[in-house]
Structures are given as C-alpha cells and as structure tokens.
Request: fold
Amino acid sequence: MSAELSHSHSPERSLDELANLAEDVLARCRTRGATQAEVSLNLDAGLNVNVRMGEVETVEHTRDRGVAVSVYFGRRKGSASTADVRAESITTTIEQACAIARYTEEDPCAGLADAARMATYFPELDQWHPWALDAAHAIELGVASEAAGRAVDPRLNNSDGANVSTSSGVAVYANTHGFIGRESGTRHSLSCSLLGEDSNGMQRDYWYTTGVAKDDLESAEAVGRRAGERTLARLSPRRIATQQCAVLFVPEVARSLIGHLVGAVSGGALYRKASFLLDSVGQSLFPDWFNILEQPHIKRGAGSSAFDAEGVATSERELIRNGVLTRYVLGSYSARKLGLESTGNAGGTHNLVISANGGDFAAMLQQLGTGFLVTELMGQGVNTVTGDYSRGASGFWVENGVIAYPVDEVTIAGQLREMFQRIVAVGNDVDRRGSVLTGSILLEKMMIAGS
Reply:
C-alpha cells in the first residue's frame, strides 16, 4: 500500500489504491477456499501538539495504516489484522485468518451481512476538510489559548495544558458480495485545561472545540477564556445535604444518558441477556413527547456515514417515537442471534438527534427552579444488566433558576428506567461536538448523596 495522504489534494487517489488492494485481498481469500470474505483498510495521518505553561511538551506526527481481514469457511470464521502493509505481511495475514477459520467451531449466525442490504446510495457528507497546520502554528494556537485562559483571573495560577490536533483519514470496506465502500474524513480539535486556587483549595476545569473543518472551531482565545471562566466558577465548592431533588444535566453530560440507553438496546447486550431492557421494543420508556431520530446523512456530522461497518446501508430511522422504543440497535450477527434483521448499526449508531421541548439554557435553569445542575460525572457506576445508576458528580446548586454556588463530592443515584420516565424537559441548547445531539436534560428528581 503506497498511498499517502496530502493536505492539498483530494483523497481519491488514496481511496483508489485501497480499493484495488481490497479487491486483490478478497480474490486471494477465495483462492484459499473462503466461501465469503471481508476486508477493511485504512490510512490515517495527523498532528498532535501539547503545550503547558507556555512551553511545548509534546509534538507528535502520526501516520498509520492497517488491514483487517475476516474469512468464512461456511459458518466458520477467522480474522487477522496487520499494521505492516508490505505484500508478504498481507499474505501472512490472509493465511492466518484462513487457518483460524478452519479450526474454529461452526456458528450458524456467522457470515457477511445480507447482500441485498448493501449500500448503493452514497450521498455527499462533506467530511473532507484538511487543515494545513504545521507544528509551529499549532504551538502558537496552544500557547495563545492557555495564555488567554490564565489572563482571565490571577487565581488561575496553573495549567494542565492546551492541546491542538488535526487528523485526516481514508478507509475502504469491501466484501465478496461485490461491495466496496469508501470513506474519507478529517477531524480537528483544540482544548485547554486550567487550574485555579483560592483559600478553599484548588479546582480544575476545561473547554474544547472540535469539528470536521477548522472553520467549525471556536478561536483558541475563546476556548482558553471559557476554560478559565469554568474553572473560576468551581472555586470554593460547598457540600449539600443528602436529599431528593430535581437534576439538570448540561448537554455534554446529558449525552451519557442516551449512551446508556443505546448500550442497553444494542444487540450484544441483548443476545447475552445482559440488559435491563430485554424484550422492550414497543414499550414506553420515556414521556410521550420524547423522540430520538437516527440521522446518518447529516453533512459534517460526527457520526455520518452511508454504510455501517458491514456495508449495510444506513437510513434515517426512529429509535424512540412518542416515548416508545421502536427497535433495537443491531448488526447482522446480533440480529441473527435474536431472529431479527440488521438495523444498519454494526459499529454503532449514526447521529442520534433528541427532540427538544424546552428553551435555551437560561430557560432550562428557570424550569429547574431549585435543584442540582450536573456539569461533570465521575466513575463507572452504571449496571447495564439491572439499570442501577450511581455516579460521582460535581456542578452547581441552583435556587429559583439562578446558579447559587458550586458543589462537589456528591453522588447521584437512580434506576435508569425510572430516570428515563422522569425526564421533564430537553433544552434546545444542543451540543454539536459529538454524534449524540442533545440539549440539556432535566429530570424531575434523583437521589443526591451529600453530607
């Protein structure tokens, strides 16, 4: 694989080379007796710079390549991969995959996704926006961001640093149904993390911006100032008493609630019977105004794709309609285990859009009234089998719709089924930095374990 990525040229030449190599790999798999085969190839390049206290800490240039092959001998599967893309290494990888398949137990659910489900529509998703960023300019941006943040207030006397990164990649997935899918994309980000200190101790907070194109990013100075303001707001936190109260999750935290839903309705958890949402299709899980729509073809979307990891066509589909779960999240293997059909979600979901019934963040604070605003979650205290939820949290106590003071060292707890039902509002203050597009989420009550 001799293709290289260039910041100044279209990725088409690299994709052509990957596609040609994919066809060659599949032909060689068939020659070795495979009844079916699939291959994924990728080529990535990037720059990552870290600065701290005005000094450069790391500068990393990355160039990665990879080939992953899966073969099927009837219902026996073997997989192998390599980052060494010399011809002899790819030959060895194919041979290893075939050897594994020959000695693997048959699995009646193994095999490629159905041929009829392969994508044939490839919309322009506007994912390719390379940034000709060199190390010197990246360092300047990081230094400027950190300096702007520390200049907000003298109490911001230390830093965890600023990070600037840019990456671009092309990938091809192909299989013996004759499907060849091509993808190219770029991603850029800038973040800053600052520490502040007063007589009550030290606090830390951060901010970041990310996007497909550099024009989508906030300025370095704006990121630094936001990080500084967030850190200052956390100084001198108080404890609150153990109680039940209304809880508002800011958008960047609220998306984790949707993540827990997706995990519980995903095929792997379901066929292993390791989910609190077994047999839940058709059940009302949320209030009747609540909707989640999967939109895989949003231009410049973080999760946009014309096909899933198996080549199955993606399409706009509801996940929650009027509070009711309409389907599971399935690839072909988990679908077969459950006696269902793939939903085009091998590899995950593609841009989940959560309907809003509330206003902006200020309006959501007013609707919260008096309660706890969650801005950070810690720990992994979520049991997908039972739905039990318990996580460390920090944020702010709100009184009469106004932030009163910062809060840390509390635990919020509940049961996810009940938490979903207790959602009373979703704001229109959508965080667009990820593939779960939600505003802030207000729950009518949760248990807060404090002092």
Summary: The chain has nine helices and 17 strands.
